[in-house]
């Protein structure tokens, strides 16, 4: 391609100050270095993590920054020592690396790469520099190894998964983060079994993806817990069979209600909001002896304290799940295969689609609770 090895000038939605509207401006994207690829982004979906880092002012917040990490793109050019993909390949970038070389990546037990461990970093993972500058030549920072709110971006090859080009981009991009995280939490972290019972605290996009994962795994009772009663009708599309609104439980704890519904507690409980109080509730809602409570939501400032007596005498498991224990390079193509075979529901996650120029509308929709996933198209011709 004519742009290979040269800087590219393109449009990006730059976050210059916390909570302020993104500004679409011209940026310069440097060529990829060793073990890197430059991607032409087709579309992105807006994840709640983008919203969170758009708002916060304390570290690891840093500005200016290009947000976005759920995306699909085409490989535009390659840096040195890249053999996994070639120019023109359709790929999904992911926030978590899959180097396929370290002990963790070679094991089925973990997706927590040791070679390129996950960080909320403003830089490229191998050399700690940026590939973005603005029109004045000033540095623009990266976001979780992707930065997809740009027509072009540079991503480390360990964060790129080649996919079948026949998959609709607006559905494939969902697997960059949110849907993979929730689905994987049920499928790979909890290992939900056929005929089991599941309780999900929080029916946002992640919680709905957990429900979809539990449904595909064969769970027969999937209980959604949410303060918004409208979520039950939405949840039914993803396998939710029962619904609890904590405000309707009176003085009875939700864990007690779940115990009554499941004859002793759910086999698997998922905390998908990021509240410590719900971690306790999820743990309390698990069945004694074999119940698992899986923490998917993130609360960076609080700690969980459970008595050793409860741990020993209940026999329950409390565990975390980052990116759903998904290994991007092997598991994402498998999930897309399930979608193409109509076994995995991705279509109902996409509630809105906007042009790149209207990216701030996507933020408004998510803040107002009106969207599950809003797809942002970089080029109207692809829609």
Automatic annotation (TrEMBL):
- Any matching Pfam family: ADH_zinc_N
Matching InterPro entries: ADH-like_C, ADH-like_N, ADH_Zn_CS, GroES-like_sf, NAD(P)-bd_dom_sf
Q: Which cofactor does it need?
A: Zn(2+)
Entry GO terms, CC: cytosol
| One of the GO BP terms on file | formaldehyde catabolic process
Q: Which UniProt keywords apply?
A: Metal-binding, NAD, Oxidoreductase, Zinc
Return one GO MF term: zinc ion binding
- The residues covered by the Alcohol dehydrogenase-like N-terminal domain are 35-164
PROSITE patterns (UniProt xref): ADH_ZINC
- Report the residue ranges that make up the Alcohol dehydrogenase-like C-terminal domain in this protein: 205-338
Q: Which domain of life is it from?
A: Eukaryota
Provide the transmembrane region boundaries: none
Under the subunit heading, UniProt states: Homodimer.
The entry's family comment says: Belongs to the zinc-containing alcohol dehydrogenase family. Class-III subfamily.
Output this protein's name: Alcohol dehydrogenase-like 7
Q: Which organism is it from?
A: Stephania cephalantha
């Amino acid at each position: 391609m004519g742009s290979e090895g040269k800087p590219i000038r393109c449009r990006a939605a730059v976050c210059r100050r916390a909570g302020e509207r993104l500004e679409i401006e011209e940026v310069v994207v440097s060529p990829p270095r060793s073990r890197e690829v430059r991607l032409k982004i087709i579309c992105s979906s807006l994840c709640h993590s983008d919203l969170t880092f758009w708002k916060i002012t304390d570290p690891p917040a840093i500005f200016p920054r290009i947000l976005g990490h759920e995306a699909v793109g085409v490989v535009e050019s390659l840096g040195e020592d890249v053999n996994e993909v070639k120019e023109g390949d359709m790929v999904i970038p992911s926030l978590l690396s899959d180097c396929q070389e370290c002990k963790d990546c070679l094991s089925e037990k973990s997706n927590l790469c040791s070679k390129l461990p996950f960080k909320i970093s403003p830089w490229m993972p191998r050399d700690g520099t940026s590939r973005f500058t603005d029109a004045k030549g000033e540095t623009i920072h990266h976001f979780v190894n992707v930065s997809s709110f740009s027509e072009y971006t540079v991503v480390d090859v360990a964060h790129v998964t080649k996919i079948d080009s026949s998959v609709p981009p607006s559905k494939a991009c969902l697997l960059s983060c949110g849907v993979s995280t929730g689905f994987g939490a049920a499928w790979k972290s909890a290992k939900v079994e056929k005929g089991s019972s599941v309780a999900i605290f929080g029916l946002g996009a992640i919680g709905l993806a957990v429900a979809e994962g539990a449904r595909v795994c064969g769970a027969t009772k999937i209980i959604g817990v949410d303060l918004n009663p409208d979520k039950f009708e939405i949840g039914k599309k993803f396998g939710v069979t029962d619904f609890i609104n904590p405000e309707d439980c009176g003085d009875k704890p939700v864990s007690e209600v779940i115990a009554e519904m499941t004859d002793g507690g759910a086999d698997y409980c998922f905390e998908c909001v990021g509240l410590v109080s719900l971690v306790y509730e999820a743990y309390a809602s698990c069945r004694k002896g074999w119940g698992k409570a899986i923490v998917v939501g993130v609360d960076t400032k609080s700690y969980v304290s459970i008595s050793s007596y409860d741990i020993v005498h209940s026999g329950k498991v409390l565990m975390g799940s980052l990116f759903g224990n998904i290994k991007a390079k092997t598991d994402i193509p498998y999930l897309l295969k399930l979608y193409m075979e109509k076994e995995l529901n991705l279509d109902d996650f996409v509630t809105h689609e906007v042009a790149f120029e209207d990216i701030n509308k996507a933020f408004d929709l998510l803040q107002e609770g009106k969207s599950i996933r809003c797809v942002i198209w970089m080029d109207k011709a692809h829609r």
